[in-house]
Amino acid sequence: MAFVQTKPQLKTLKQTAELVAMGISKQELAKMVADGRMYRVRQGYYMSSEEFHAATEESLVAGFFPDAIVCRESALYYYGYTNRTPVVWHLAFARNVSRSRLKASPVSIRPYFHIQRLFEVGVSAAGFNDTVLRVYDRERVICDCFSRRTSMDAEVFSEAIQAYVADADKNLANLSKYASLFGISKAVESVMGVLIHA
Questions:
Q1: Domains (ranges, CATH) in the chain?
Q2: Percent of the chain at pLDDT above 90?
Q3: Which residue in 21, 45, 116, 198 is a FRET match for 185, CA 20 to 30 A apart?
Q4: In what order do the strands lie in the sheet with 14-15?
Q5: Could you say which DSSP state residue 140 is in?
Q6: How far is CA 29 from the centre of its chain?
Q7: Number of Cβ atoms within 10 Å of the Cβ of 77
């Protein structure tokens, strides 16, 4: 079949309705899954079995959660602010996201939910092993550390702050702006006051 020859790309993951519109009946799709040519990644979403098994976790995250933002420990690890490799993907979502969609994730994730006003603060894009993902910038990640300092591992917090201070790409103006926006200016200044005002 032409569809198998032109395998769906993960970045344009095919839904059942799209496949039907391409001329593949639901019965044909079921047969393709049964004989191993297609992989049902989760309800209503398919891709070639070959592509799914060759996919990286990064490409799966990008394909299934284009609305997500890499955050917390995953972002700390990306920026080199911690040596602890996360065992799950820490992803931020808008508060109104469908929770059922997250439960069907093909990779292990830990979701965090934000009100829309704060969700996009500090978002940027970066390459994760040849896959572009949205990720919070350094300053947003550090502000998130301060926001949850009491529940965060003290060693990871200290390691992250020290790494940020030493980072030549830090942006103190943005750190101060975000800290004010999140209502944590005093907490940030108590630890990094001299650095912020340098």
A1: 2-55 (no CATH), 59-196 (3.30.460)
A2: 58
A3: 116
A4: 14-15, 45-48, 38-42
A5: H
A6: 30
A7: 16
